[in-house]
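Format notes (please read before filing issues)

Several people have asked whether sequences and structure tokens are stored in separate files. They are not. Every record keeps both together, in the order shown below: the sequence lines, then the token lines. Line labels are part of the format and must not be stripped during preprocessing.
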Amino acid sequence: MTKTERRVESLSTRLEQKLEAARKYRSTIRFFTSHRWLLSSTAHQNKAETTLQRARTRLQRVTKTIAAIRRVLRKREARRVANAPPKAAICTVFGRRYCGQALAVSWCESRHSTRAQNGQYLGLFQMGSSERRLFGHGPTARKQAAAAHRYFVVSGRDWSPWSCKPSYAYS
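Then the structure lines:
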């Protein structure tokens, strides 16, 4: 297990612990909401008010921590998706229905290389300069696949703009 995997795992574990703590604090607050008589009882009032206030304060604190952990995990996931290898990026962008076709076209056009270049044609799907200007382009497989997908959709979900077609063998 790599250091990053351990960090993500430990962050996920920490999130689960914080979520469990939040559940307990909410449960305590619900208990006192449904047993209001404890808050007005002379025998239990001090302890009940202290416990309820502590639960509210800690719930507020743990809620902020949960939000922060979730932000970090979302950023990490976004980075992971953005830096995905070409095949994964293509399938994520094109979806299950067109994944195989898009992989075949990309293989034929660039052998799944984001750095492929043939004159003005660049990237995974060898898009020309005017297509890149219209639909975008980027250094990552995800950005190149997203640009090609926009072009694919505008062209009627048809591979006619590409010289390679999905019917060409994919290896």
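For reference, the curators noted about this record: The mean pLDDT is 91. Residues 3-82 form one domain.
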